[in-house]
Amino acid sequence: MLNLQPYQNPTYFGYLAVALLPIMIGILYGRRFRWYETLVTLAFLVLTFGGDKWWQGLMLICYIIYEMILTFGYFNYRKKKNSGVIFVLAVILSILPLVIVKITPAIDAGKESIIGFLGISYLTFKTVGMIMEIRDGIIKELGLWETLHFLLFFPTISSGPIDRFRRFKKDYDAVPERDKYLSLLEKGVHYIFLGFLYKFLLAYFWGSYLLPIVRIHALGHGGISWWLVAYTYVYSMDLFFDFAGYSLFAVGTSYIMGYETPMNFNQPFKSKNIKDFWNRWHMTLSFWFRDYIYMRLVFFMMKNKLVKSRIAMANIGYLTLFLIMGFWHGVTWYYIVYGIFHACAIIINDAWLRFKKKHRKLIPSNKFTEYFATFLTFNVVCFSFLIFSGFLNELFFMLSLIHIDAADDLTRVDL
Q1: CA–CA separation, 332 vs 336, rounded Å?
Q2: Distance CA 32, CA 30 (A)
Q3: What is the pLDDT of residue 406?
Q4: How distant, in Å, are the alpha carbons of 118, 216, 313, 333, 395 from that of 219?
Q5: Residue 365's pLDDT is what?
Q6: Which of 23, 155, 316, 368 has fewest C-beta within 10 Å?
């Protein structure tokens, strides 16, 4: 059976273009063929999880059944009662499969969990978000097919962006006006072609061509070197263009289908401080963590008067949020340090902004300071990506095992 990973090769895009054509025609004439969208979704799920990925497909089915039972069970319970204990239990049960997937490699010699599949993180974010909004009384109606369509929306299933159920349902229930859809269609095509530039040209140059060369030289020199500095910036560019390119494909495809999936990136390297960066980088993830973890934790501390100082409360929230984000990426020291690094960066940033507010007359504010702030933020972010990459682990803790092979590779590259 054929297996095609999302947005990875021309064949996938060929199938995608053919599949989207009837959807485009239908919306232009004021109709949304939900039955056809369902067939297209099933077809692309089979392409993604078929062939040698069949086990992942089976786990996806099991996961969806599990989460649907849990979500609808809690929805029906919430109509009658509102116990905090039951709510917490529902959230824990919802994230349990993801926790198992994440910790299994750490406790089982690097082996992947048998219940894991492509996109489990992003499906978990969706289901947890739904449970929390059910608790808040925001989600008052929950239909079977619209929930399945929301969870299994194929353009975003593997790596987001992370949508919200209420926003998705508005698009699911309505057909955009012709003029609005033509605007969406134009944007969607633009995003897809921009995604080609990002992922298949720029990410290829930085990641597939330049990064291996820089990596070999950095390993060959060992320790701190200018090649390590080069690796920092090359890896950062590759990470951005690869992930932003994928996100553009997902958003562009969604727009063509008449769904205004939120954007994931907004020129993050133009950020003036680290908090501004997180309002521009992987936005649907950072906003999800902000709304469902940070804000709820701060509210809990305020409600129970656990911490008197608002500054201390915010700092505890930052540390908790980014530690969870670090563990979500993986149970390894560099992901956890990456999370702590960003928490400390935001805490320092907030302290600086408070100091700056009190001493406005003493601290200049002009074009130079703005450019310098952007330059400083860019370098801080790139250093954090070096931590995130795991290359420091390879360079400093595994160098003795790979030094000879790296030196041989370096000789071949030089030749």
Answers
A1: 6
A2: 7
A3: 47
A4: 31, 5, 42, 20, 6
A5: 86
A6: 368
- Residue 126 to residues 73, 123, 374, Cα–Cα distance (Å): 16, 5, 33
pLDDT lower than 50: segments of the chain: 402, 404, 406-407, 410-415
Confidence (pLDDT) at 414: 46
Which among 114, 185, 184, 121 has a CA at the least distance from the CA of 156? 121
DSSP letters for 310-368: HHHHHHHHHHHHHHHHHHHH-SSHHHHHHHHHHHHHHHHHHHHHHHHHHTTTTS--SHH
Cβ atoms of 390 and 332 within 8 Å: the answer is yes
pLDDT digits (tens, 9 = 90+) for 177-214: 999 999 999 999 999 999 999 999 999 999 999 999 99
Amino acid residing at 306: L
Give the separation between CA 361 and CA 368, rounded to whole angstroms.
17
- The reported pLDDT for the residue numbered 410 is 43
Residues 224 and 233: their CA atoms lie apart, in Å, by 14
Give yes or no for a contact between 114 and 62, defined as CB atoms under 8 angstroms apart.
Answer: no
> How many distinct helices (H) and strands (E) make up the chain?
19, 0
**In the annotation, is 329 catalytic?**
yes
Nearest Cα neighbor of 75 from 62, 94, 60, 59 is 94
> Tokens 């059944």 correspond to what residue?
65
Cα 391 to Cα 90: distance, rounded to the nearest angstrom: 38
The catalytically annotated residue of 282, 329, 359, 403 is: 329
- Which pLDDT score is estimated for 106? 87
Q: Spell out a b/e string for 263-300, using b for 16 or more CB atoms within 10 Å of the CB, else e.
A: bbbeebbebebbbbbbebbbbbbbbbbbebbbeebbee
Task: Let me know: does 157 contact 249? Beta carbons within 8 Å.
Answer: no
